[in-house]
From TrEMBL:
Pfam families registered for this protein in UniProt: ACT_4, RelA_AH_RIS
Residues in ACT domain copies: 126-200
Residues annotated as transmembrane: none
Record-given protein name: ACT domain-containing protein
Xref: Gene3D superfamilies: 3.30.70.260
Amino acid sequence: MYAAVGYQGITAQQATNRLTEKLIEKEKPVDLENSLIEAQQEVETKTKKKSTGIGVNVKGVDNLMVRLSKCCNPVPGDEIIGFITKGRGVSVHRDDCPNIKNEDEARLIDVEWEGVNRQRKNYSVDLEISGFDRNGLLNEILQVVNETNTDIVAVTGKSDKNKMAVINLTILIQNVDHLRRIVDRIKHISDVFTVQRTIQ
């Protein structure tokens, strides 16, 4: 094209027009690409806003402080409900938590787990185990839990004059299925009577 201008094959104005057209053609894909990138970033930003960091989404609401209630320790797979606290964001409870039953229904909000099957977080669960106080009972319980590759956070125990033992165990699990496997194995230990989750 520059040669054509030199030899007066096209005018300077025609050359300018052609250059402008080529620049526009080059810019169009770039603009489209930038638009796609911006749209993707917007989607990612909105997705991040909905994530609470504890694996729970508040339905229809972004940027809320969310925490798991310590009274019932919900874990992925539990039916859950949110409670809007005064100044502390949303507290997530198990749906069957007695502490939530007497609260103002207007302050309850729908919440849901983020991809239960993809959870890689650990959640604290309190178990109360009752049984006959015999030698080795506690060791057998701890061994069974260790065999499931489950972390034990705390353990306490006591027994009465009738040789009834109560063992309180705090463990870290990933979801309800993980918990059920542990509870089922503990229940099969000789002289264990009951295994249940506790609510404070």
